[in-house]
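[step 3/7] fold_predict: job queued, chain A
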Amino acid sequence: MIPPAPTDTVFESLPALARAEADPPRIDEKEFVQIYEANFGLLVSLAVRKFQVPFGDAEGLANDVFVSYLKHRNEIRELHGWLIGAICNASRHYWRKHNRDIDQLDDETSSIHVDPVSAHVVDWLTARIAAGEALAVLSARHQHILRLRYYEGYSIPEIAEELGTTAKYAQKLVMKILRRAAEFFKESAPRERK
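[step 4/7] structure written:
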C-alpha cells in the first residue's frame, strides 16, 4: 500500500502552479519583435500560396499563430519548424471552418489575392536581365566601374581613387558609360510598325 502524500505539500504546490499558469515568464519585447518581423511575411505567404487563404485572412491567421507562440513559447524546441507547422494547421482549420476543401479551389479564387513575395517579380526580373545585357556590351573596365558605383556603392571620389584619376574625370566616365548603355538599348529595342 502506498502511503498518501502529506496534505501540506499538495496544497502548498497548488498556488504555485496556479501562479505559473496565470503569470508565464515575460518575453523580451525586442526579441519578440525580431521573431515577428522575420517570420510574418513567410507565414502569410505560406497561407496564401500553399493553402490559397485570402490575403486578409492569412494575415489574421499569422497573428493568431504568434499569439499561440506567446502562450506556448516555453514548450517549443525548434521555432521555425513550429511556426510553419502552426500556420499550416491554422490554414487547414480555416478551410474546415469555412466548409471548403482546399483541393477544390478554382484558379479564379487564388488569383484574386496577389502573393506579397512575388507581386513585382516580373518587373524585378526584367530589370535584372536588362542590367545584365547592358553590362555584357560594355568593356571589362567599364563593367568594373559600374559595379563599383552601383553594386558596391562607391562614391565618385572613391572610384577616382581606385582608377587613379580625378573625381571630375571619374564622373564624366560614369556618365559616358551610362549613355553608351542607353544607346545600346535604343538600338536593340523593337521598333513599332506603322
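[step 5/7] annotate
The chain has two domains: 19-112, 121-188.
Residues 19-112 form a domain with the Rna Polymerase Sigma Factor; Chain: A fold (CATH 1.10.1740).
exit 0
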